[in-house]
Amino acid sequence: MTEHFPSKIGLSQQFSCSYLPQQNEQLLVILDPSCYTPARFEALLELGFRRSGDQIYRPHCPKCSACQSVRIPAKLFTPSKSQKRKFKKITGDFSFSVSHKEREEYYPLYEKYISLRHSDGSMYPPNKLQYESFLFCQWLPISFIELWHHDTLIAVAVTDTMPNALSAIYTFFDPEYENYSLGNVMIMAQIEHAKKLDKEFVYLGYQIDSCKKMRYKAQFLPAQRFVNDVWVEQDPP
């Protein structure tokens, strides 16, 4: 699995790219049911794949190769001075917790986040079916890393768990707490969770350097990128 693709793979139709204007997107989709287990999915993560809902996919665009998978060697990660300051702000009245099942507070927070932060994106307007079909998965254990302010839930990082890695699926948070850099804070929380579980990697999904919304991922070092089917060390920005 780490050297060869599965034999049963489909190719989607082309559709408008969600990240790069004027570009079309196309996906390789895993059709082999035996791949839909935590261990085999982890092998596919090593080949640049990812999941959305129950489906495993990888970009296979006809005229673009901008998407590059990024992963953090969790045990080697040391936060920068800036990241330490951001994490230090989440003290006192703030607390982290980890849940392994969905709470009723999640969807209202997700709906608020999409409506106020991504009203120009493909996920707007949010709805419950879209939320469930995007984030949840029937064949994989999911952890929800939560950030609370007193008794108010303000951020959730949806995180997949594999034998040797975690995969960051999506983080949503209360836009009223935007000045706390919660996107960055929740990545650091996922890395710390990986260390506690003795996992080797945290996969951050795809990086597109020309997409402003993704540039924050380049601040997490050391990191590796999947370039031309090989994992290489990422250079500092």
Automatic annotation (TrEMBL):
InterPro entries: Acyl_CoA_acyltransferase (IPR016181), Asp_Glu_LeuTrfase (IPR017138), N-end_Aminoacyl_Trfase (IPR030700), N-end_Aminoacyl_Trfase_C (IPR007472), N-end_Aminoacyl_Trfase_N (IPR007471)
Major site of localization recorded for this protein: cytoplasm
Cross-referenced Pfam families: ATE_C, ATE_N
Natural source organism: Pseudoalteromonas byunsanensis
Name of the protein in question: Aspartate/glutamate leucyltransferase
Signal sequence annotation: none
PANTHER family: ARGININE-TRNA-PROTEIN TRANSFERASE 1, ARGINYL-TRNA--PROTEIN TRANSFERASE 1
GO BP: ubiquitin-dependent protein catabolic process via the N-end rule pathway
